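Issue 218. Parser rejects a valid record. Input:
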Amino acid sequence: MKNLLPIISLMLLANLGISQHEEKDLNPQDPKAQEILDALSNKAAGYTSFSADFEYTLLNKSEGINETQSGSVTMKGKQKYKLEVAGQEIISDGETVWTFIKEVGELQISDVPEESEEDGNLMNPANAFHMYKKGFKYRHEGTATIDGIEADVIKMFPMNPKGKNYHTVVVNIDKAKLELVSMVVKTKDGNEYTYRLKNFKSNIDVNDSDFEFDEDQADDIIDLRE
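Output the parser choked on:
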């Protein structure tokens, strides 16, 4: 669980494959789903910053894997974020990404990846609110009660599944607060990643200095910038 790339998008995605029958039946713009997703996206566009705790669970029934980690995320604007989970700290100031593995004192430094037309920068936590706009089909699946919260359930599928490592993303949205409750990502290798948000707070006071990493903390620095 030390590789956090599945997260962000954010967290970050699954695949058992979508059948041809499913693709024919899917409406790329299910009106009910789009209404809810647009409302969530519009509300999130008003966030100057946010923070949340989360639980990150990896489930693979065939392999007998069921592991859960806790973490936290803080975001400012559209590009600055800080993630802490599974002994790693990932910080971005909008230009540079620092990934620090605390146990071994290793720091990886990279440029912020460019967004692709379909997927966008999935490492960016803010994209969880807007990812449906690029390259996804989606449909409303009704409602469900998740930890006592009544949520709208929306399934999203990539329009071009070839080359993707996931086939389904399930987004659960609090009906009353219009906030993201959880996201489930199902991968082609049978993994199921669940991200459950807790203690969500928007428009909090954070400083730009919170999104800079003190490189003196690292014992070993790997610079991956071009």
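Fixed in the parser; the record now loads. The longest helix spans residues 31-45.
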